[in-house]
Amino acid sequence: MKFLRADTFRHLRLGKKRRKLQKWRRPRGLHNKLRLKRTGHPVSPSIGYGTPKHLSGKVSGMNPVLVHNMQELLALKKDDAAILARIGAKKKLEMIKYADAQKIKILNLGGKK
């Protein structure tokens, strides 16, 4: 669910261009309708909107694991996805080739998805 920042549509009334980044900030004003949870206004993040525990922390249904070297890549399980740490190009290419052969998904490869 996308939570909108308070007064996020004000720029439309002022005739300005829409901002791309709408990062959540907690509404703090005394008369703020979002803080008061008034009907007809966007919803605020609260406990009821949380992700179920069995899905929490997963990316595309897989557990992300930070991988620094070949041994850590070899130790991955079937339901794990690799995130390559900051490593050199030679080691990275070697790890990508191995992951391709073993059908291991690497989450932080720029253009390849």
Compact description:
With about 110 residues, the chain is α+β, with helices and mostly antiparallel strands. It has three helices and two strands; from the N terminus they run H-E-H-E-H.
Structure write-up:
The protein has three helices and two strands. The longest helix is centred in the last third of the chain and has 13 residues, at 89-101. It is an alpha+beta fold and 113 residues long. It has two domains: 1-50, no CATH class; 54-113, no CATH class. Strand 1, helix 2 (70-74) and strand 2 (80-84) form a beta-alpha-beta unit. The chain has helices at residues 10-13, 70-74, 89-101, and strands spanning 63-67, 80-84.
Radius of gyration: 21 Å
Q: Work out the strand percent.
A: 5-15%
Q: What's the main sheet like? A: 2 strands, parallel
Structural class: alpha+beta
Ranges where pLDDT stays below 50 over 5 or more residues in a row are none
The total of helices stands at: 3
Average the pLDDT over all residues and give the rounded result: 88
Order of helices and strands: HEHEH
**Net shape:** elongated
Oligomer category = single chain
Name the helicity range.
Answer: 10-25%
Number of strands: 2
How many domains comprise the coordinates? 2
Instruction: Report the end-to-end length measured between terminal Cα atoms.
Output: 24 Å
Q: Describe the strand arrangement of the main beta sheet, using strand numbers.
A: 1-2
List keywords for this structure.
single chain; 113 residues; alpha+beta; 2 domains; two-stranded parallel ribbon; 9% strand; elongated
